[in-house]
Amino acid sequence: MALNARKIVVRLKSVVPPSVFAFLKTCYYGKFGLSKRRPYANDYAYQSAYMKHVPENGIILDLASGHNPFPKATILSDRYLEITKHRRQEITLDHRPFVILDLHHLPFKAKSIDYIYCSHVIEHVENPEQACSELMRVGKAGYIETPTLMKDALFSWAKDLGHKWYLVGFGNRLVFFEYDRRRVEGVRSTIWERTVLGDYYHPNQDLFYPNQDLFNTIFEWQERFDITVFRLAQPQPISLS
């Protein structure tokens, strides 16, 4: 129904005065449109279903908290205060302690953090083995989320955002695959981004928002997890258990 109405509105644009078309467009969006869809990442409503071990009380670290910190975090952090290609919004600072850090060298004692929230961060790291070892060294448990290859490909933003890896979770193992030059470009189109993240309704939104577990690698861990890293320049993967 929405698609038929959309076609009608587009056709009317060529035959009715601009003021009449503007009114009809407003009516269409009032019926079928949405003022703004929910964000593509850090949507805690869907993430909460996968976080089984967040403590009610304790030290909770948000790694790369950026402009939209994890509500339950007691410590915020980021590598940069300024806007970068990885974060295009101003950083949010509030009453919670804030630490500038590098994920490869976390400035915390062993097992001093009760829960580490690490969402849309680890796909950027240079050394996955070191970064994951640091997570397990300082954390008792945590949540990791990254875009899947499918998501990066459809949105065609892995190259611009500096994603170095796409990840797959398999049991208690997190598998890293280094991007090659073709996959990092995705489908080379902005159509998916414009239809899903635009201001108004599009049927692609009904495919994207209810299926976040397919568009993101969602991985919660306790104490330790295994990792495997596939690098383009190395014939054999590296595994750590």
Notes on the structure:
With 241 residues, this protein is of the alpha/beta class. It folds into two domains: 1-33; 34-240, Rossmann fold, CATH 3.40.50. It is 28% helix and 20% strand. The chain contains nine helices and ten strands. Strands 3-2-1-4-5-8 form a six-stranded mixed sheet. Strands 6-7-9-10 form a four-stranded mixed sheet, with helices on one face. A hairpin with a 7-residue loop joins strand 9 (226-230) and strand 10 (238-240). Helix 1 runs antiparallel to helix 2. The radius of gyration is 21 Å and the shape is globular. The N and C termini lie far apart (52 Å). The relative contact order is 0.14. The model is unreliable at 38-42 (pLDDT under 50).
Which band does the percent of strand residues land in?
15-25%
* The CATH architecture of the largest domain: 3-Layer(aba) Sandwich
Count the E strands: 10
Q: What is the ordering of alpha helices and beta strands?
A: HHHEEEEHEHHEEHHHEEE
Order of strands, widest sheet: 3-2-1-4-5-8
Largest sheet: 6 strands, mixed
**Class derived from helix and strand content:** alpha/beta
Number of helices: 9
Rg from Cα = 21 Å
Rounded mean pLDDT score: 88
The parts where pLDDT drops under 50 for at least 5 residues are 38-42
Q: Which descriptor suits the 3D outline?
A: globular
